[in-house]
Amino acid sequence: MSFEQILYDVEDQILTITLNRPDNMNAFTAIMRDELIEAFDRADADDNVRAIIITGAGRAFCAGADLGEGKNTFNYKARGVMPEDGRHRDGGGRVTLRMYQSKKPIIGALNGAAVGIGATMTLPMDVRLASDNAKIGFVFSRRGIVMEACSSWFLPRLVGISQAAEWVYSGRVFPASEAVAGGLVKSAHAPDDLMPAARALAKEMTAESAPVSVALCRQMMWRMLGADHPMEAHKVDSRGIVAMGQSADVTEGVNSFLEKRPAEFTMKPSTDMPDFYPWWDEPEFK
């Protein structure tokens, strides 16, 4: 699949996905939605991809939904695109659910305005970095619409309910420094330093780690955010320790430590996930 509205570039085992509608501040469209989902499908199938960075072309990360349909932008019935059964699926939610399922770490490099879906699509990323000049806003209340992209699940878990409520109820746009203070963004950087910092973090996450171990740990942590008791984590931990304890990667990991040499892990997330993975039943949209 060739892409129209994103760029897909793999270098040194790091995939950079660039939202690429700079003349429209990378406003989100149905095409961009489908291309992002396809990009994550492709990345999970490619063992040469160890980590993913998402950024934007030009001066914005993503300025939100494309409002080209004017007042009917969110009125799917008026636009004639409502499914016959009336069960419309939010496009941003389809993207963030796909990110949630990723086997690879995801880093957001917010190079400019990240508003609406431009903010909520970053929430299932594992770490967010921002340019000093980035502006972020969960502006839904100022458009008369509601939170989307599963953000009512993600945002309070990331920053706490009080901080999430303040940002969402007011709908105001705030600077990168406030996003750092509120726990949404790890750090802010001079514009020219943002991508090097993101790439350095991606390398730190993956240079000496086992790809299958990272894939499992990522899903374990994200899935346990919704668990109702630590026993659920204990169940998965126990199965993971047994399965991976017999694996080639654990043999290599232990031997390399004892022999004081770099490990050479051979297991692949595309083919070598343990038999118990996935351990969850994916909920249906209904």
CATH top level class name of the largest domain: Alpha Beta
Structural class: alpha/beta
The total domain count is: 2
What is the rounded distance between the termini? 30 Å
Keywords:
286 residues, alpha/beta, 2-enoyl-CoA Hydratase, Chain A, domain 1, Lyase 2-enoyl-coa Hydratase, Chain  A, domain 2, 6-stranded mixed β-sheet, 4-stranded mixed β-sheet, 38% helix
Structure commentary:
With 286 residues, the chain is an alpha/beta fold. It folds into 2 domains: 6-206, 2-enoyl-CoA Hydratase, Chain A, domain 1 (Alpha-Beta Complex), CATH 3.90.226.10; 208-286, Lyase 2-enoyl-coa Hydratase, Chain  A, domain 2. It contains 10 helices and 10 strands. The protein has helices spanning 30-45, 91-100, 117-120, 151-159, 161-170, 176-181, 194-206, 211-224, 230-245, 248-258; strands at residues 6-11, 14-19, 51-56, 60-62, 106-110, 113-115, 127-131, 135-137, 173-175, 187-189. A 6-stranded mixed β-sheet has the order 1-2-3-5-7-10, with helices on both faces. Helix 1 runs parallel beside helix 2 (91-100) and helix 8 packs antiparallel against helix 9. The chain is globular, with a radius of gyration of 20 Å. The relative contact order is 0.12. The model has no long low-confidence stretch (mean pLDDT 94).
Give a short overview.
With 286 residues, this protein is an alpha/beta fold. It has helices spanning 30-45, 91-100, 117-120, 151-159, 161-170, 176-181, 194-206, 211-224, 230-245, 248-258, and strands at 6-11, 14-19, 51-56, 60-62, 106-110, 113-115, 127-131, 135-137, 173-175, 187-189.
